[in-house]
Amino acid sequence: MAVELLGIIAPVFVCVLLGFAWRRAGRSYPTEFVTDLVTNLGAPSLVFSSLTSFRVELSLMTELMGATALAIAAFGVLGAIVLALLRLPRTNLLAPLMFPNAGNLALPLSLFAFGPEGLALAASVFAMVAILHFTVGIWIWTGTTSLRVLVMAPVAWATLLAGVVIVSGVTLPVWIVRSTALLGELTIPLMLLTLGVSLSGLRVRELPLSLGLGTLRIGMGIAVGFAISAGLGLDGTARGVFVIACAGPSAVFNYLFAERYGRNPAQVASVVLVSTLLSLVTFPLVIGALLD
User: Which end of the chain, N or C, is surrounded by fewer C-beta atoms within 10 Å?
Assistant: First the structure.
């Protein structure tokens, strides 16, 4: 089991470490360009290619997306209660508790743990997290939101088009299959390298608070992930990828939004960094339990 876990976990964190070391060595890395490329081209291609190539059942795909929305809502309620008890600002800290890293880490971990089926199912979870992050998440940061954000989200369109293909049973032209697969394949390595680069610029502030909130993010992620999967009867690969996504650390996009909207980015960065470091310990335990 230990060797199997190492084969799943090590490649992911080696890539993150390489991105971290690359930036710390003073080498240039176009983070904004790569993020834009992954968000608007790579990730949508990965979602579309994964869902259509494996031909995920539409009922399972929608069930996983619904479970993901339920989990995000649970994280929001639990996070709001804790922040209220501690008298901490929700506008700064609720989103980092609500939105886990369902992309950079959960996608490759699901692929290595469960194969192409795991990647396809994880793609549907990632798509829902991304849609909610760019709508509900922005509302938390700013107090306003717009359907235009959802309409303009490439991941949302990729998910919708994949659903149409799955329902219709149409056979896609080879050039579309290969083009989206090729573009999708660049996504995971770029996500992991960019995560490492981003973490290299973050600093830990208010360690007790960051450690407490980071532990809360991962702890409630694991608890809610297992509880919802049990309640909905998810099993096998579907259960595995769902729990992995829920158990992730705070997404780096939380820091990017905090920076954009001036919501104490240093504090949010600290939560992102500490929770990511904690996941080095918790992910092997969670994946080991799922594979046992």
Answer: C
Token code pair at residue 230: 């049990």
At residue 146, the pLDDT reads: 67
Q: Which CATH class is domain 2-19+29-291?
A: mainly alpha
In terms of Cβ atoms closer than 10 Å to its own Cβ (0-12, 13-18, 19+), residue 170 is exposed
Find tokens 């980092």 and name the residue.
96
pLDDT digits over 75-86, tens only?
Answer: 999 999 999 999
The CA-atom distances, in angstroms, between 44 and each of 25, 40, 52, 214 are: 31, 7, 12, 29
pTM greater than 0.85: yes
Q: What is the pLDDT of residue 147?
A: 67
Alpha helices in 25-105 (DSSP H): 31-37, 43-54, 58-86, 90-98
